[in-house]
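Intended use. Records like the one below are meant for learning the mapping from a protein sequence to its folded structure. Do not use them to infer anything beyond what is encoded.
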Amino acid sequence: MSLYAKLQQRAAEGRPIRVALIGAGKFGSMYLAQIPRTPGVHLLGIADLSPEAARANLARVGWEPQRSAASSLADALKHGSTHIGEDWRALVSHPAVDVVVECTGHPIAAVEHCLAAFAQGKHVVNVTVEADAFCGPLLARRAAEAGVVYSLAFGDQPALICDLVDWARSCGFPVVAAGRGHKWLPHFSQSTPDTVWGFYGLSPEQAARGGLNPKMFNSFLDGSKPSIESSAVSNATGLGVPSNGLLYPPASVEDIPFVTRPKSEGGVLERKGMVEVISSLEADGRKIPYDIRMGVWVTVEGETEYIRNCFEEYNAHTDPSGRYFTLYKRWHLIGLEVGLSVASVALRGEATGAAIGWNADVVATAKRDLRAGEVLDGEGGYTVWGKLLPAATSQRLGGLPLGLAHGITLVRPVRQGQSLSWDDVAVDTATEAYRLRREMEKLFAPARERAAMPSP
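Structure written out for the chain above:
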């Protein structure tokens, strides 16, 4: 039975999936726009630091006021409406909730929310991929131990890439490479919220008119978000990562199967089975026609002559050798697609992407020369950007994960381009996020790294 048929059945039986949403910002609002149009789903409550902002967003996406007028969670359950408040703990612990959608974008808070949901026996769809990037393997393990499902969010590019990888492997194709697109030039890694709009092609006045958040947009531009998302894909699929960061080869959709081959065959990959990000700009800044900037892709290999003949007979676009074929989705609809993850975890008990190991990490890297005493401001800010590295490399460096590089002070200077380590900062060791990360390093480190680590 299809997911949609299962949703219809739940609606007919009066047993909707009951959802708790933590964070009703832009991504959450896009999901909210789809809930009234989805059968078999009841949003029991929204927890947000600003309930008034959440109500404003509900109005913006077209909710009728009575749908969110519940005075309490009990009232919302009784009348099939939605309660809005600040108390996320009360929402997560409510016995009627089936699925928690974590949508805050705050990685440290997201870890706390996920762990609390697992403890209450709730499935989690984690939109805050920043948290998954630095401790996703252990979050997935904790969920399994609690008998619930932890999942990346469909609509966000990592889950869409995982879906393409799963398609390929389920069809019997070896995955050569998989990833997303991005607008990229090397100097973007030094971009700050003060320079982001020029690189994006917007004036500060246009950005202000649209209410656009420069730090959030800059986290995409400076390479942090592509690294975070690539890390999540690597950890969920087992695909490897480049030894010294993403390469961002420029390519049109037509040229993806040409560049995503091993170097020995004329491509850019160190080996087969890698994540990568395709740039929509040539090295000189020219825009590439028919780019994959907003999409996702997977390159597979036709291992036999018969399969390669099939590629040719059905006019599949391949590299010149006819051996490598790329399937792609040129667009993604972000929060508008989250409902698929909610339905999948609740009705099938299946994640739409979740970490199975620790292959990749995103390490905070200095945008400029940093002085002792400076306070790091995390992804998209003025001090650091996120560089994708193999987990084993990060482990040897003692790499500081980007997700924890928020509001902490440097204790010694760091040169521009240098990846930061734990020894460079005074980190708050009292957070659940810190403790979970350090535990993950011990549990998931490669055997040779684990043997060299001191006992706790």
